[in-house]
Amino acid sequence: MSAELRRILVLLVAASTALATLPWLASDFMLSLALTCLLYVGLAVSWSMFSGATNYLSLATSAFFGIGAYVTAWGYESLPYAVVVLLGGLVAAAFAALVGAAVLHLRGAYFAVLTFGLGELVRHAITYAEKTYAKTVGRVIADPPESIDVYLTVLLLAFLAVAVCAMVRASRFGLALAGIGADEERAQTLGVNTRRTKILAFALAAFFAGALGAAMAVRWTYIEPASVFNPFIGFQTVLIAMIGGAQTLIGPIASAVIFSVMTEMLRLQFPYAYLIALGVLLILLVLYLPGGMASLFRRAWKPNA
Amino acid sequence: MTFWIELVATGLITGGIYALVALGLNLQYGLMRVMNISHGEFLMLGAYLTWLAHTVFGFDPVAFLPVVAILLFILGLAVYRLCFQRIVRTSPSVEVIEARSLLIGFGLMYLVQNAAYLAWGADMRGYSYLSDPVQIAGARFAGNSLLAFGFAMVASLAMLALLRWTMLGKAVRAMMQSPAGAQLVGIDTRVLHPAVFGLGLALAGVAGALLSMLYEITPGMGEPYTVTALIVITLGGLGSAAGCLAGGLLLGLVEAFGMHFTSPSLKMLLSYGVFIGVLLARPKGLFAR
């Protein structure tokens, strides 16, 4: 384990321990704000672990998130909360591995478009299955867990996502992913099993999205396909990671916190104007700062780099 | 028998509109690798413009079609200039152009769609236009859907003729075959790229105007059409206008028959099934040699 990785992990453990005391210190509103921040930290970091490194633009986050939420909807009555969350992650990862095996040979726009449609596909499939076999459109979560438990679970997942991402970045596996992003054919020539690497990373990222979906689902009490497969969740994740700088670790974390706070403050008051502003921001960013916020600082530190 | 004719006709009518929507997107993508995921939002703008012109100012929707095309063309020039010109010129490779234009498309999608929500609200809007049934060979059709199919076909075929026989079309095809070669013989990308982008939006706008005669419209109506257009492009092959037309009609038929034999709520699943199947089996399109 390198010195840098050890330093990141120590910092991470310290930050998480401090955040774990929040339920006993902060008000309900602050706690729910912190929960949203942690959710997007987990989603954006796990997204950039795969898509930031490999340059495969995945828009499937809302599909994985929704699958996780539906695992909770189906399993919460008979299984304990922790098991359901784990199961949600595993089901989403298995789904990602299956889809990945089928479509990860496609690059660029095809991959993006296919994953964009994945959320819709799963949403329609579940809506149809629920209507036909269970004769219902949504499900009620009776007796949801304490909000402290939800908070600590999401905190643990966000912590794991960042820690796993940091460890992946420092490993041979992470180098292989970055190699695929830089030049896939070259990576293959140099002996990387690109297919297995991509599928593994795609499934790993999906695990966190699914587990976070399963953990957050209990907050809604009423679960229906239209709300848990909301494309906004996926869009916001990509936006956060891209604005922060998807090639870095700190970028997505910082911008997840900034955007979650902004969203909570502005989205309810000015729903349409806020989304218009997000759209404009994304366009400006891609045009003038394609490396994200993190590239600003890197440029400031190393003017010649 | 009559029933089958009606089913085929329903498929072809939907397919004709699909082809028209996909044609614009295919031209843009084939020529400059700009994957404009907000294509459907401009279709929605075309629909709202026609609805406004008809209900507020009393224009005839058909007579208003050229106006929609011209307005969307001008809008396309502006959007290209503001959003896409820079990435097409400064990106190091086509893959980067694809990825960045996709993200810009998402930005535009949120911008345009929410601006429409802000302006017109989330209610369904619509008007009745030529909805009386017409009898042809014993089968009954709504007059407006025949009209929409006719105009979709005319616009698509006009586009094909333009590509085949005019200087502009030759330049576009040359540029698709070899960008460097085309520039060497004096084809100017600074004129061609904005013009083709504008043309793509004009086609989307016309498709939207036609759809507004058939169905009720909402600000969110465009998104499914974007996805459908991408499926049609995959079916017909990237950059192939004739393949696009065939692919659109084919997808319309597949949906019509599929929904008849299974259930209307499976429409999306059917389209995706086709999409994934084609991507796996024939990633270059059904008609590629």
- Could you say how many structural domains of chain B there are in total? 1
User: With helices defined by DSSP (H or I, 4 residues minimum), what is the helix count of chain A?
Assistant: 15
The profile of the biggest β sheet of chain A is: 2 strands, antiparallel
Largest interface: A-B, 37 and 39 residues
Overall pLDDT level of chain B: 85
Q: For this entry, what is the oligomeric state of its chains?
A: heterodimer
Order of helices and strands of chain A: HHHHHHEHHHHEHHHHH
Calculate Rg of chain B over CA atoms.
19 Å
Largest sheet of chain B: 2 strands, antiparallel
Shape summary of chain B = globular
Question: Which percent range fits the helix content of chain A?
Answer: over 70%
Main-sheet strand order of chain B equals 1-2
Shape of chain A: globular
Descriptive account of the structure:
Chain A is mainly α and about 300 residues long. In chain A, about 80% of the residues lie in helices and about 0% in strands. Chain A has one domain (about 5-300): ABC transporter involved in vitamin B12 uptake, BtuC (Orthogonal Bundle), CATH 1.10.3470. A two-stranded antiparallel sheet of chain A has the order 1-2. In chain A, helix 3 (about 30-55) runs antiparallel to helix 10 and helix 4 crosses helix 12. Chain B is an all-alpha fold and about 290 residues long. Helix content of chain B is about 75%, strand content about 5%. Chain B has eleven helices and two strands. Chain B has a two-stranded antiparallel ribbon with strand order 1-2. The longest helix of chain B is centred in the N-terminal third of the chain and has 31 residues, at about 1-30. The mean pLDDT of chain B is about 85. Classes of the chains: A mainly alpha (about 300), B mainly alpha (about 290). Chains A and B meet through helix 6, helix 12 and helix 14 of A and helix 3, helix 4, helix 9 and helix 11 of B.
